[in-house]
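note to self: dont lose this again. the chain is below, predicted strucutre after it. 86 aa total, dont forget to put it in the shared folder this time
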Amino acid sequence: MPKTIEVEIDAAGRLRPLAPLPPLPVRALLILPEQESPASPTRGATAAEALKLLASPRYAKRPRSQPDEVSRRIAELRADWDRREG
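---
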């Protein structure tokens, strides 16, 4: 079964796997996405940046919903989905 492993390619064209590789040598296909996702978990934010966000006034003042309101909305969306499936 094929296995997908994310890699980074540096400016010199060297591949750096972000997960363990199977025993080498091995053949592989390289598929380049059209653009990188800015929300990729392996890019961008560090733990220090995440802690900074959590301590920020912007995060403290974020809108919050009541748990029963969230549960009600989830139930509505599930019911809507069931109607579309059926």
